[in-house]
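Lecture notes, continued. The same structure-token format from the folding unit now serves as the input rather than the output. Read the line below as a description of shape only.
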């Protein structure tokens, strides 16, 4: 019954009957609670929207300040960039922003090396601008409520580019500070006001706001397009509904813009990370050490937001978001992540976890999902590396069997082998990593350091 309901939902974004919506909500709610308990996360807020239907908009468990409800506030951190992407789509559709304009045209006092950088490179981390957050002066700017983006610009413009624009993609915030400064100067409003005008206002989501507070009053917005927003489950549901209704921007226009390969590098677009889920292109972002995760499938009209206030959350927000999105897009019953089985095991020995994992991995009827399991096994291994390197080696070795073409897992195995004094085996693993990524300077350096003279 439930699979049939989900299949029809995946084929078309239509209004569900009350009973169908209730069945879907109950099934998702059960799996979310199962995962939250297994991951040991105290509280989680979740929004799920499909077409015209709010499937879930509620809280699970408790945040530090009390039980989680649909109106409980939580931070988006870098997932704020997804809000920026939606706002940017509206600004572009209205003709207020030209992505192909050059920085030299937009900032007449910009350095010579910046002149030919198109505006869109500031949003997808390929501009080459120096990373502001690693500069010594940044802490002083961050603590000054009157500093703003101009102070960041004055520092970054004096620094050489980290790389030739377009040569690489490196996650940083400098491009957002500069693009935000440009937008504010040209449109005459601070970025949060533009977000309210183009996104949260049309969605009537009054609790999604820039949350930087100093001495009880809001400071001058600074890199507010890259982080610092807070939201609630109910507010995010309204934003997803507004996106589906075309109140932010025409949905086809938004989908084409934010998935356009011309603005992408390494699966990163205009403020969004692109991921394929069940054959659908989804856009979104995570933030705060996985304390927040926002993902939207514009063609299908499916949106999911998960957030927690717990720092050590084992990426529950990521796995719940993927589980929900996959169920709604594929028409299959929701499947908790394999990490739920591992984290919930009473016997946490490495060999027991390997046995449990392999049993489900080889089971064609498994009820678990495995997306991102390489990272889960790696994290479990590093949890044990210092005090139990043999246990870590067992988990890393499983990863090399499952993902033999991942340089990262071979590098991790080398760490455990070194901790166990197995130098020759560690060098072999390092060379496997280097063979898979021959141009990686880190792997080159490791092999050179451990190779015999």
């Amino acid at each position: 019954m439930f699979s049939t309901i989900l299949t029809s939902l995946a084929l078309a974004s239509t209004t569900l009957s009350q009973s169908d919506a209730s069945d879907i909500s109950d099934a998702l709610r059960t799996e979310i609670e199962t995962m939250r308990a297994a991951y040991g996360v105290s509280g989680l807020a979740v929004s799920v929207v499909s077409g015209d239907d709010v499937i879930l908009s509620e809280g699970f468990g408790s945040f530090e300040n009390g039980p989680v409800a649909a109106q409980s506030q939580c931070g988006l951190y870098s997932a704020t960039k997804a809000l920026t992407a939606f706002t940017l789509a509206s600004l572009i559709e209205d003709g207020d922003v030209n992505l192909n304009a050059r920085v030299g045209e937009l900032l007449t006092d910009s350095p010579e090396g910046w002149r030919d950088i198109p505006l869109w490179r500031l949003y997808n981390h390929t501009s080459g601008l120096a990373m502001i957050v690693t500069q010594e002066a940044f802490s002083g700017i961050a603590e000054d409520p009157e500093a703003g983006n101009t102070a960041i610009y004055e520092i970054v413009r004096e620094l050489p580019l980290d790389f030739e624009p377009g040569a690489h993609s490196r996650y940083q915030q400098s491009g957002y500070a500069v693009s935000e400064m440009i937008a504010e100067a040209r449109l005459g409003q601070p970025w949060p006001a533009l977000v309210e005008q183009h996104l949260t206002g049309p969605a009537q989501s009054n609790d999604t706001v820039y949350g930087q507070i100093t001495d009880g009053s809001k400071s001058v917005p600074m890199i507010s397009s890259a982080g610092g927003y807070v939201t609630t489950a109910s507010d995010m549901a309204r934003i997803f509904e507004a996106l589906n209704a075309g109140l932010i921007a025409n949905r086809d226009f938004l989908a084409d813009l934010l998935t356009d390969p011309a603005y992408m590098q390494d699966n990163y677009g205009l403020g969004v990370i692109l991921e394929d889920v069940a054959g659908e292109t989804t856009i979104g972002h995570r933030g705060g050490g996985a304390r927040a995760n926002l993902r939207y499938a514009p063609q299908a009209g499916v949106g999911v937001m998960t957030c927690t206030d717990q720092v050590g959350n084992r990426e529950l927000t990521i796995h719940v978001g993927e589980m929900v999105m996959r169920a709604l897009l594929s028409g299959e019953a929701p499947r908790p992540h394999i990490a739920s089985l591992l984290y919930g095991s009473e016997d946490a020995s490495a060999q027991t976890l390997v046995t449990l994992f392999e049993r489900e991995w080889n089971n064609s009827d498994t009820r678990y999902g495995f997306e991102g399991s390489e990272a889960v096994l790696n994290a479990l291994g590093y949890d044990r590396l210092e005090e139990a390197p043999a246990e870590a080696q067992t988990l890393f070795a499983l990863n090399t069997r499952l993902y033999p073409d991942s340089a990262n897992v071979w590098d991790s195995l080398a760490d455990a082998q070194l901790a166990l004094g197995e130098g020759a085996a560690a060098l072999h693993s390092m060379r496997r990593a280097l063979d898979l990524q021959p141009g990686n300077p880190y792997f080159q350096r490791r092999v050179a350091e451990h190779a015999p003279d």
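Point for the exam: The chain has 18 helices and twelve strands.
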